Amino acid sequence: MLPKELQSALANLPLAEIRYFDTIGSTNAEALALAEKGAPDGCLVIADHQFQGRGRMGRNWVTNPGAGLAFSLVLRARTRELSHLALFSPLAALSVSRVLEDDLSLTPLIKWPNDVLVSGKKICGILAEAIWHSPETATVVLGIGINITPASVPPPDQVIFPAACLEAAAGRPVDRWHVLAGCIQNILAYRAILDSPAFIDEWTARLAFRGERISLENAGSETVEGIFLGVTPEGNLRLKLDQGQEVQFSAGDVHLRPARSHS
Ligand code: BTN
């Protein structure tokens, strides 16, 4: 049953459906299954405890009971969004970042394409998964996991990037349902400008390591280094190689790390 506090936090949002689970394997898997069965745009799947959460590049993401946020939003792509599906995960990152800035006075940065960092530690992970129903119809499931209390932070040996939680960063208790409502409100607002330069500008302004030397690693562990110039209107990363030329990478292909200092 939907907890009363959650119901009241979401009361004024234009969500088509809310599916709440005390325990679930993965809210993304559930939302994808619902989308295949015709779930409407704006269907929210949320769980208190997620034990088989899916992360990017085949990693997993656990959400302990009462400790974090794990939710997925079904978004039926509109015609003009079909050529911008890669921007849905930055849309989520920007929406989460704005809640941290506006409600918790934090200064988050976005590690391209979409991890939200506070003081260099990961606080939120995002996994957007798309299903194409036909060449003209697609659904995006936007999955977001946010660490709220210290119990949500995985042990250091289980993560490849240092992690933290909102309560430690803000130095006070954080109402997770309030954070959820803010994220959804921002997703709906930013979605309206997804294909605009204003959206790319807001994302770019929060990019971690922009202007710095970074290393990109592909699935075969090959790396390329260069200066992180920013992103293209399609959301690809622009890298300036040491020889001076610019190359671009899409989010599915590479993993970003700050480059090791050569000094
Ligand atoms: C990552 O950083 O690798 C992405 C993690 C995404 C986790 C969220 S939690 C809610 C949603 N359901 C899932 O199974 N995964 C996403």
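qc> The mean pLDDT is 95.
qc> done
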